[in-house]
Design goal:
alpha/beta; Rossmann fold; seven-stranded parallel β-sheet; three-stranded mixed β-sheet; 12 helices; about 40% helix; binds nicotinamide-adenine-dinucleotide
Length: about 350
């Protein structure tokens, strides 16, 4: 199976590439623009594999993407390229509209054209898998879970741009007969995550003796999934999912933000007691809430379990321990990022006007 993975130099895309490259029968072309969020070092374990290929390209560049499709002749597309950080979408939504909506539109148009050129046998194999987020469903109260039928109610520029892309994918399936599948996943964590996101930020702040900024009362709830479990879910969906279907992917691990930071604190107390204060309260820096901060996300995982037989294999406790250990063991990966790209400053506070 020849797969184009977009955004394969990012956090989740690189996990997908790592899990597929080297496996007999697969060939991967990773198309990535290499934005601030990308890191080719996340792919160093597979970059020499003969079945792994990389093209630095913007998914909005239609002519170039068309050329890559014509040369590689994919059997499938796994579309992960996106601007992905909610706080950055508050500061600068234009890039989110451009990549997440216009970029997805461009990719769909190229895929549609390419699909039309295939033989009926090749058409039967082809699929376009769009990777999205549970944030498109909006915010839950204390009760309830997102199912695949939950109406969309995105509330941040990021989630609105992802919802827009989901609707485009679905429309290209219905209108043009492009064989599409959409999956909506909860928050991911694990190795190689850019340190603007809560879990790596908390680990690295604690390792540097800095407090961890916690938005509002710290009681916003997310469901957390270990990134390698997400990669396995995506391969399962690609190979076993029904054309035209939608799948919600979750980790059965709802946690408050404070609970997440507490878990990291507990692991560090065990692994590196000399780096953390005695008292958990001394680690927390309560800061003004994120504008429009959704209160709770939670996934009903029934469809993935019952229809595709997929379940996460990491508990949150195991996953967070492995993640903390990975950051302890991989200073060479994150030190240059903190030095050259992002040193932990607060983003998304509505300080500037529109660009
Ligand atoms: P990421 O920010 O780590 O990586 C995104 C990648 O896309 C980067 O390598 C970047 O260079 C690339 N990219 C951005 N704009 C591009 C463009 N115009 N052309 C080509 N490449 C471009 O993101 P991630 O956390 O790995 O998320 C991957 C996908 O999964 C996204 O679509 C995101 O919406 C979705 N998702 C993420 C999470 C999560 O918790 N991180 C949860 C659910 C869904």
């Amino acid at each position: 199976m020849k797969i184009i993975v977009t955004g394969g130099a990012g956090f989740i895309g690189s996990a997908v590439c790592r899990s597929v490259a080297g496996v007999k029968g697969y060939k991967v072309l990773n198309i990535d623009k290499l934005t601030y969020a990308a890191d080719v070092r996340s792919l160093s374990s597979i970059s020499q594999q003969p079945n792994y290929h990389f093209a630095k390209q913007d998914i909005c560049n239609k002519a170039a993407i068309k050329q890559l499709f014509a040369e590689f002749k994919p059997d499938a597309v796994m579309h992960l390229a996106a601007e992905s950080h909610v706080d950055r979408s508050i500061d600068g939504p234009a890039e989110f509209v451009q990549t997440n909506i216009v970029g997805t539109f461009t990719l769909l148009e190229v895929a549609r054209d390419y699909f039309e050129s295939l033989s009926s046998e090749q058409k039967g194999r082809f699929r376009f898998h769009h990777i999205s987020t549970d944030e498109v469903y909006g915010s839950l109260g204390e009760e309830g879970l997102f199912t695949e039928e939950t109406p969309y109610a995105p509330r941040s520029p990021y989630s609105a741009s992802k919802a827009g892309s989901d609707h485009l994918v679905s429309a290209w399936g219905h209108t043009y007969g492009l064989p599409v599948i959409i999956s909506n996943c909860s928050n991911n964590y694990g190795p190689f995550q850019f340190p603007e996101k809560l879990i790596p930020l908390a680990i690295l702040n604690m390792l540097h003796g800095r407090k961890v900024p916690v938005y509002g009362d710290g009681l916003n709830i997310r469901d957390w999934l270990y990134v390698e479990d997400h990669a396995s879910a995506l391969i399962t969906i690609l190979t076993k999912g029904k054309i035209g279907a939608k799948y919600n992917v979750g980790g059965n691990s709802e946690r408050t933000n404070l609970g997440v930071v507490r878990s990291i604190f507990d692991v560090l107390c065990d692994l590196r007691p000399e780096t953390v204060p005695r008292d958990f309260d001394d680690v927390i820096d309560p800061v003004a809430d994120r504008p429009g901060h959704d209160r709770r996300y939670a996934i009903d995982p029934t469809k993935m379990r019952d229809e595709l037989g997929w379940q996460p294999t990491h508990s949150f406790e195991d996953g967070i321990r492995q993640t903390v250990q990975w950051y302890l063991d991989n200073r060479d990966w994150w030190m240059p990022i903190l030095k050259n790209k992002y040193s932990g400053e607060r983003l998304g506070q509505l300080t500037g006007g529109a660009a």
